[in-house]
């Protein structure tokens, strides 16, 4: 699908990988609907992008909040006439926590629920609520393509480190649901693709601190550096444009396999 003159809903769209994706799709002529909990930055990004961008303050762990953002997007789509071409579900958190800590305290359920409700439930809920507006699209290709769903997993889905129980569970689930999602949606001509990045520059990885970041870069094969958000966005663009990409998880990781601990 060509992104031009289509609307893409991007959660986590005002920072890091989501923002780079928004900028790239926007530069290709797409309309971008940015959903994020961070309202201050949202207004600035929309001002920067100008036309063809809207921001909806959204908490993806709150189903009503997603509903309102989709309603707002659909209203905008009615004005522009640019159908929803897809969703990029980028909102995510990486809150760490050992299953049992040094004080012999087990991982709290509130911390587990926090990560799962954003990374897993929030991703599925966003997709679930957007789909009725994609299944009804006029096909955009001779094959009958109507849309594309792009999700973000992580290296942690395959080689999660110590302290990544909740995060790895959420990202492993995203990887696992990619194929059944593609299968459910194939009759509508909607594809589902997941990207599993290793270490990429973003606000999330800024919080790791320079020492941890350096030790992660050391275990990369080639190139020995964190990925740039623009390199991630380039793969998203390919996922949007290449109809043969479907039901798969693409590792974008410089051959990095994360060690148990740093
Ligand atoms: N950067 C990496 O190295 C890396 C590696 C693997 C996977 N990922 C995944 O990529 C995605 C994007 O992460 P990033 O690195 O760009 O981080 P980031 O912190 O720069 O961006 C994440 C965005 O999600 C938003 N967000 C958080 N909770 C939200 C909520 N409840 N509702 C709506 N928005 C919410 C944040 O405000 C932020 O704008 C995440 O799912 C992350 O797990 C990142």
TrEMBL record:
Pfam families: adh_short (PF00106). Gene3D superfamilies: NAD(P)-binding Rossmann-like Domain (3.40.50.720). Residues 6-203 form the Ketoreductase domain. The keyword Transferase does not apply. Keywords: NADP, Oxidoreductase. SUPFAM superfamilies: NAD(P)-binding Rossmann-fold domains. The keyword Transmembrane does not apply. One of its GO terms (molecular function) is oxidoreductase activity. Belongs to the short-chain dehydrogenases/reductases (SDR) family. PANTHER family: 17-BETA-HYDROXYSTEROID DEHYDROGENASE 14-RELATED, SHORT-CHAIN DEHYDROGENASE/REDUCTASE. This is 3-hydroxyacyl-CoA dehydrogenase type-2. It comes from Lepidopterella palustris CBS 459.81.
